[in-house]
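Troubleshooting: if your tokenizer reports a length mismatch, compare your output against this known-good record of 279 residues.
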Amino acid sequence: MFSQKKATYTYAIKGVDTLKLDVYSPEKIKANDSLPVLLWMHGGGFAGGTRDNPQEQRLVKYVTTKGYIGISISYRLLLKNSKMGSGCDCPKVFKLDIFKQAAIDYLDATKFIIDNTSILQINPEKIFAGGSSAGAEGILNAVYMKAHFADDLEKYKNVKYAGVIALAGALVNAEYISKNNALPTVLFHGTDDPLVPYASAPHYYCTAEKPGYLLLDGSETIAKKLDDLGTSYYFNKVIGGGHELCMIPFDQLDTIMLFFEKTVFNSEIIQTKKIITKN
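Known-good structure output:
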């Protein structure tokens, strides 16, 4: 089904972490092609997962059949081997730093592919940010809260995105979404997700006295903000759904790609909220 070629690059070295990205290009890419790209960040609670998980590989290979370049990145897993995890025992300040560093890693990966546009044959005007679970939190904060988390904004002055795919993700503060940075965004979330809040609620639903009490804005809040701004979005809401909504929805990828074709490439405004009740 898939015909593509793969290349791996190191985009940063940070302490003991050598951060790489896998680039999947259509097999028949032409020398003068400049293709849109999906830049994907895997999930795993900032403790596990890899850029070449089977699902991630299948996704980035899939987009090559649609005329895209698919890129899956590694990033610093700051909770790897941690006994406290990312729940209510993880202090708020540590959580915020984890979100920040994940966003910075994503911005650095984006800067790398932009700096190597001609080699990778990507269109820097058509970079689609995507991620699931922890990766969705990383990309949402990179896209919408770059001004808050980046210490050196000048470094990322050429970094911009065309669209967003977030599976069971959340933002630290959706108020950072504005008319100037709002993008066509695809959101998948279950209303009963026990980890990442579906609307606006504490991360892991921690109580206020817990060290890990941190309010986040989930997909419902993000969609509402985009709706108010008149920005395109596709929101797949599953009533009774849990954190399994972070799984890549392969049965809806054609719908997602069509949404971006209409909203990004053809500049249409589409606001869709698909509501499903879990069986």
